[in-house]
Amino acid sequence: MNKCIYCNERPAEVPDRRTYTGGRFVKKVCTICHGKLLRGDLINIVRLESKRAAELAESPVTSANNRIV
Ligand SMILES: [Zn+2]
């Protein structure tokens, strides 16, 4: 069993999507590090989404286009 490429402590149980090339399913990351990576992704997504929502709310063109007539 390979060790996780991030912590090098726990057994690798899921593939690393950063080095995933498609086709080959190679386990490289433990579930704990996988969870940490997903958490980082979610934080980025939420940050981007709230930024986009703020921009849409501030844009007069977009709010005019989105208005229900
Ligand atoms: Zn790990």
Summarize the structure.
This protein has a two-stranded antiparallel ribbon with strand order 1-2.
Structural summary, described in words:
With about 70 residues, the chain is mainly alpha-helical. It has a domain at about 15-60. It is about 50% helix and about 5% strand. The protein is built from two helices and two strands, in the order ββαα. The protein has a two-stranded antiparallel sheet. It is elongated, with a radius of gyration of 20 Å. The protein binds zinc ion. Zinc ion (ZN) binds next to α1. The site of zinc ion has 8 residues, from α1.
> How many helices in DSSP terms?
2
Major sheet characteristics? 2 strands, antiparallel
Indicate the structural class.
mainly alpha
Question: What integer value in Å does the Rg equal?
Answer: 20 Å
